[in-house]
């Protein structure tokens, strides 16, 4: 059996299946909103993604959390419907809507049956264009957000991330969690919410992904119906920010048998010429699954954690290389040493030919498998547009990865990975972490 | 995160109203290999990919006494060496082929899957068949991996007040049945799990006549049959497969209370759980009615709990009801109430029962009933978009003792439920139930966080 498996592996280099046939139609609605569509009439529903770029980074300094609270209120009453009437209408149509706000995006997802699509679109339009922001709904959702913040304040993973961002970003909106702080949320007024609504949902900053049972003409009309009455133009976004965090370790005391470590430093932009080399590098460092250096060295070889990973954060205003793991308090210092050693080794020596080939095989092979459902496809289409990628990106993406050379990765590793700048926020009661670690 | 047991998944399934029946995207075909391995093929030709799953009819509720966690531990060890493959090579080869692999353990099953390009199905079967019988346990790797599962337990349970609370209330709900054991295992028993324990569990249960192969995606039944016969067909059936001996629950004649206090609790809450019937082969009507009941009481924004407790009375931050109808042995019906600050847990508990009484007194709102029924119908459409999800549901259903005809008839059973059926099921469930009531509370003062800079 060894021989057969080896033979299969050798045959791989030229044996990848053709990409799934994904044909993207570029649609411009009569009202001028651009959208990407993958038409597929095999199942009678459509998945839609409306991504409004800007997100909670648009919050005014004195109103942090306003965009998040506003987004949570969109489904709590609209037009002549109070929260209950809205929910009953949505359930009665078996439509599903999701409303989310992150640092960079307010994203609205929808699934609508073909048989009642117009009625579902009416409902979504009401939520986006005519939200009521009733005082009782504001108080109810504010209570939910405050309760979430209370939970986050006792969750070691969230404490680690929040502490890291707070130390890295100073006065920039990125320093504050998208949900805001207990103080800022408690102080938000209805006017703050109205202002956030006016700033976040505008037609000039929306990208649309659609997949499923709808034609281009139908989609154009649907988009204009849903978005047509939103303001045309948005206020400016804040500028980029560079992490001001120096290398080292910050410990946040937290009573728990385990410590959570959140770590990283500044990263690389998606439009950087070296982005794809960095993408491959991260796959080897701490990408998906067991074969990464961090999983092999921290989990498989030493049993110091259940899981560890790293990722390239492509936050619009401050890209970063980040990672996270949890280890028992008595093991976390050793695990941090191992992470630092891998960081230093890759920065100095780059990756091996075998690692490069394995990473490329995985990254190019798994890509076509992602396009496996209307909802997923609609999200990918919106995400590509939010990153300003061209419509032929799907076709060309694997060739960009194939083109990465060992020297490219070595150069990027030396430039990107900086063991001296690597900062760890450790939340727990770690043992044996001392200055100079 | 890799290799997590299916606890979260079970919760997710319990939250999904969508019935899980045959995918109308493609046909579902089943056959049996000569060695007793059941095979199910779910066709979906929209993308050139497959999900390949092997489910074993064994889980945490089948573990020998004193070895809690062994089913899940073995799941981890299945990614180590076989007689012909090196440790970790399984994962490496799946990734080298552009695929993704993982596994999960629950009380009733252990499952392994790969998602991969359709033309790699044969290789997946070859490797999965290899590790069905040829696993080789290495003492050093067993020790390291035991450390990994202890870290997993620390991360998911010991570091989580909610995780520990759930574990304690579940242990209180099942007096005699091993459903009371956590899938991950009790720490003191996990620490003692040995290579011999893993070997014995593997030797007992991992055989083709205890396995179900499910392939979903861009394949035909003929292709799957030919490949399955080639790779799984030669493995002999075990004639020593033990029956799944599950100690039965005695009648529950006493209410039980669990109070767990933890400084990490942010929002105190109360849970109420009671045993509930499940989908029985050939008899799914009671379970179907309970699915409606959970939805009407606490399944969404227009449920009774949300409408009254959250919105009208503003006494709850969140209140819900859950019921998982798919289980080999009895399941539970549960309710949760997270009160707003200022409402005590005793009051929150009383609120839940007040809502149950309100429901029993007021009966069914026909409009709400129709909305739920329509969403079940629409679920048939939406689920066609997620073939891997359909495959997952088939695995859970088949390892819960249901037949293909039960699975295919489930939606019809759900759609034939009447309001009277729901009321009758509610009365049976709440007629003098023995309950486990849990209070998750925090001490008066919480932990103080303090930043300490160490080195630069």
Automatic annotation (TrEMBL), chain A:
Signal recorded as keyword: yes
Lineage: Bacteria, Pseudomonadati, Pseudomonadota, Alphaproteobacteria, Rhodobacterales
Gene Ontology molecular function: any one: metal ion binding
Pfam families xref list: Peptidase_M16 (PF00675), Peptidase_M16_C (PF05193)
Coiled coil: none
Annotated ranges, domain Peptidase M16 C-terminal: 188-361
Name assigned to this protein: Peptidase M16
Top-rank taxon: Bacteria
InterPro entries on file: Metalloenz_LuxS/M16, MPP/UQCRC_Complex, Pept_M16_N, Peptidase_M16_C
Stretch forming the signal peptide: 1-20
Keyword entries, A-Z: Signal
Record-annotated Peptidase M16 N-terminal domain positions: 38-176
SUPFAM superfamilies xrefs: LuxS/MPP-like metallohydrolase (SSF63411)
Entry annotated with the keyword GTP-binding: no
TrEMBL record, chain B:
Name of the protein described by the UniProt record: Peptidase M16
GO molecular function, one term: metal ion binding
Peptidase M16 N-terminal domain boundaries: 39-184
Peptidase M16 C-terminal domain mapped to chain residues: 193-373
Signal peptide: 1-24
Pfam families the UniProt entry points to: Peptidase_M16, Peptidase_M16_C
Residues passing through the membrane, by range: none
Provenance organism: Roseicyclus marinus
Cofactor dependence: Zn(2+)
Keywords: Hydrolase, Metal-binding, Metalloprotease, Protease, Signal, Zinc
């Amino acid at each position: 059996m060894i021989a057969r498996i080896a033979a299969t592996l050798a045959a791989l280099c030229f044996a990848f299946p053709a990409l799934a046939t994904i044909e993207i139609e570029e649609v411009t609605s009569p009202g001028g909103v651009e959208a990407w569509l993958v038409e597929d009439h095999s199942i009678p529903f459509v998945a839609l993604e409306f991504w409004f770029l800007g997100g909670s980074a648009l919050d005014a300094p004195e109103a942090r959390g306003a965009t998040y609270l506003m987004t949570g209120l969109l489904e709590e009453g609209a037009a002549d419907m109070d929260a209950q009437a809205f929910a009953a209408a949505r359930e009665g149509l078996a439509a599903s809507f999701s409303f989310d706000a992150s640092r960079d995006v307010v994203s609205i997802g929808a699934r609508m049956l073909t048989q009642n699509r117009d009625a579902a679109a009416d409902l979504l339009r009401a939520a986006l264009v005519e939200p009521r922001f009733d005082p009782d709904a504001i108080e109810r959702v504010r209570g939910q957000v405050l309760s979430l913040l209370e939970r986050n304040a006792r969750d070691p993973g969230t404490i680690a991330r929040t502490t890291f961002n707070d130390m890295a970003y100073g006065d920039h909106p990125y320093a504050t969690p998208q949900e805001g702080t207990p103080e800022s949320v408690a102080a938000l007024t209805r006017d703050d919410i109205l202002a956030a609504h006016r700033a976040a949902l505008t037609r000039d900053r929306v990208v649309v992904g659609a997949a499923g049972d709808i034609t281009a003409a139908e989609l154009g009309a649907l988009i204009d119906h849903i978005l047509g009455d939103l303001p045309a133009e948005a206020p400016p976004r804040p500028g980029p920010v560079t992490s001001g965090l120096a290398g080292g370790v910050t410990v946040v005391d937290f009573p728990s048998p385990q410590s959570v470590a959140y770590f990283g430093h500044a990263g690389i932009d998606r439009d950087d010429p070296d982005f794809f080399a960095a993408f491959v590098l991260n796959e080897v460092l701490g990408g998906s699954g067991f074969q990464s250096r961090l999983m092999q060295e921290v989990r498989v070889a030493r049993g110091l954690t259940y899981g560890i990973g790293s990722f390239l954060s492509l936050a619009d205003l401050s890209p970063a290389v980040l990672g996270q793991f949890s280890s028992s308090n008595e093991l976390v210092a050793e695990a941090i040493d191992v992470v630092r050693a891998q960081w230093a080794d890759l920065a100095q020596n780059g990756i091996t030919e075998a690692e490069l080939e394995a990473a490329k095989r995985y990254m190019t092979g798994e890509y076509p498998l992602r396009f496996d459902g209307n909802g997923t496809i609609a999200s990918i289409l919106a995400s590509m547009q939010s990153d300003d990628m061209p419509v032929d990106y799907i076709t060309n993406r694997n060739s960009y990865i194939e083109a990465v050379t060992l020297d490219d990765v070595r150069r990027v590793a030396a430039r990107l990975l900086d063991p001296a700048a690597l900062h760890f926020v450790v939340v727990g009661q770690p043992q044996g972490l001392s200055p100079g670690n | 995160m890799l290799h997590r047991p299916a606890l979260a998944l079970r919760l997710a399934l319990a939250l999904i109203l969508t019935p899980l029946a045959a995918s109308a995207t493609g046909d579902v075909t089943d056959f049996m290999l000569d060695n007793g391995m059941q095979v199910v093929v779910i066709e979906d030709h929209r993308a050139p990919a497959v999900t390949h799953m092997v489910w074993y009819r064994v889980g945490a509720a089948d573990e020998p006494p004193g070895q809690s966690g062994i089913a899940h531990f073995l799941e981890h060890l299945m990614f180590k060496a076989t007689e012909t493959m090196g440790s970790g090579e399984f994962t490496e080869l799946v990734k080298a082929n552009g695929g993704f692999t993982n596994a999960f353990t629950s009380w009733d099953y252990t499952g392994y899957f790969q998602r991969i390009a359709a033309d790699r199905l044969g290789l997946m079967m070859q490797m999965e068949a290899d590790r069905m019988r040829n696993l080789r346990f290495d003492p050093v790797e067993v020790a390291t991996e035991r450390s990994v599962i202890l870290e997993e337990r620390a991360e998911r349970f010991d570091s989580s007040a909610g995780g520990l609370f759930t574990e304690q209330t579940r242990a209180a709900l099942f007096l005699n049945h091993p459903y009371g054991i956590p899938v991950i295992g009790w720490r003191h028993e996990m620490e003692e799990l040995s290579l011999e324990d893993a070997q014995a569990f593997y030797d007992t249960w991992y055989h083709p006549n205890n396995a179900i192969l499910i392939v979903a995606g861009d394949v035909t039944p003929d292709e799957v049959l030919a490949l399955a016969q080639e790779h799984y067909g030669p493995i002999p059936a075990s004639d020593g497969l033990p029956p799944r001996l599950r100690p039965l629950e005695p009648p529950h004649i006493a209410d039980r209370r669990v109070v767990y206090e933890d400084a990490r609790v942010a929002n105190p809450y109360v849970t109420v759980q009671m045993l509930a019937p499940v989908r029985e082969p050939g008899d799914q009507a009671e379970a179907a009615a309970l699915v409606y009941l959970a939805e009407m009481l606490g399944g969404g924004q227009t449920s009774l709990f949300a409408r009254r407790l959250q919105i009208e009375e503003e006494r709850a931050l969140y209140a819900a009801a859950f019921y998982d109808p798919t289980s080999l042995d009895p399941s539970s019906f549960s309710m949760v109430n997270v009160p707003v600050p200022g409402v005590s847990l005793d009051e929150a508990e009383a609120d839940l029962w007040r809502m149950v009484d309100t429901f029993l007194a007021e009966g069914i709102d026909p409009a709400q009933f129709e909305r739920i029924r329509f969403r079940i119908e629409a679920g048939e459409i939406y689920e066609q978009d997620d073939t891997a999800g359909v495959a997952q549901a088939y695995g859970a259903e088949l390892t819960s003792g249901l037949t293909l005809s039960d699975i295919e008839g489930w939606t019809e059973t759900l759609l034939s439920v009447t309001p009277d059926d729901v009321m009758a099921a509610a009365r049976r469930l709440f007629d003098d139930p023995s309950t486990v009531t849990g209070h998750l509370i925090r001490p008066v003062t919480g932990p103080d966080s303090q930043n300490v800079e160490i080195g630069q």
